[in-house]
Amino acid sequence: MHISSHCFYWFFQRLIFSPFCRLFMNTSHRTFFCRQIVNQILLIGLLFVSAHLHAQKIYVYCGPGVAADSLYQLRDMLRDLVPNYSLECVDSKTIFSKDWEKDASLLIVPGGADRPYAHILNGEGNRRIRAFVEGGGSYLGICAGSYYAGERIEFARGEPIEVIGDRELAFFPGLVRGPILAPFVYGSHAGVRAAELEWAVGSSDLTQRVSILYNGGGYFVDAELAPNTQVLLCYVDQSYNEDCCQSVKGEAAIIQCEVGKGIAILSAVHPEFNPYQLSAEDPFLSPLLSCLCASNHGRIELLKQLLRRLRIEVEK
After folding, report:
1. Among the residues of the chain, which ranges form H helices?
2. Are 117 and 65 in contact (CB under 8 A)?
3. Domain coordinates of the chain in residue numbers?
4. pLDDT at position 56, please?
5. What is the mean pLDDT of each run of 10 residues along the chain (316 residues)?
6. For 57-309, which CATH class?
7. Quick one: pLDDT at residue 199?
8. Which residue among 136, 168, 212, 310 is least crowded, i.e. fewest CB within 10 A of its CB?
């Protein structure tokens, strides 16, 4: 709903104010009284519209641990698909000290590294994020943001970069385990893959299979059995030769969790990445571009579907 204050004013003046005042045109003091009443109604209405418009904000977390490329791709994607929303980056200081929840439609935690998120947001920060979602807000976690929103993380077990532990948000009441398609390498695209996904929920409007950029994501263990959880897309069985960690057939890649009155969608892959903006000169990305570009329409439709599920109005 996008209503300007001018339209609202016209509505009251033409449809309410004028007919109402004609009933009292015989005396000036009644006309004055009429105007005062309608002006008060108009003021209340304008304040309501202003508050509604002010609430059209999407916040993207940009604190320590967030990967710059995921942040930039998110910004461009949101500007294209949800131009009627104000986009703002928020750090931990804002999460802790500002009333960001009052005008937030959606909070996005991008890809990067989960451990710095926990180090800074544990306690009050996570309490406020969870309260926001439970109260009817929406949360989108991408890659690290999806690990972070599970009850427990198991990342690169047995490797030098191992991260294992409980997490406070626990939108998904279970374990998020990864990486699943290839070993993850910090500061490199060596672990990037084109993950083929299949929709687990049927719709004639959706391309049933879509290839999305993957870099270090996990899967949501036994998500199909978890309460208040719906599997949206699954990994399709593929061969990754020597760096295939395990069979991925049917494992949950993107899920939707009902959290109180709100919704959390967790994506182990990176649908925000536009393949046409990736470097053809990168030796790790170049072999993947044809597959990712061929699936770009499906990627965009996937993003629109996820945003709609998060109660965000999407540009048609």
Report:
1. 5-11, 18-22, 28-54, 68-81, 92-97, 114-121, 124-134, 144-147, 289-294, 296-309
2. yes
3. 5-52, 57-309
4. 86
5. 42 45 47 47 42 71 97 95 95 93 97 97 98 98 99 97 98 97 94 96 75 97 97 80 60 98 98 97 98 97 97 91
6. alpha beta
7. 95
8. 136
Tokens of 194: 């084109």
DSSP state of 276: G
Do residues 309 and 264 lie in contact, with contact meaning Cβ atoms separated by under 8 Å? no
Q: Please state the pTM of the whole predicted model.
A: 0.82
Nearest CA to 303 out of 276, 274, 272, 257 is that of 272
65 Cβ contact list (under 8 Å, min separation 6):
112, 113, 114, 115, 116, 117, 120, 144
Q: Give all strands of the β-sheet with 193-199 in edge-to-edge order.
A: 86-90, 57-61, 104-109, 138-142, 262-267, 252-259, 229-235, 193-199, 209-214
Tokens of 69: 């490329």
Give the pair of three-digit tokens for residue 287. 């072999």
Residue 203 has what pLDDT?
Answer: 62
Residue 116 near residue 65 (C-beta atoms within 8 A): yes
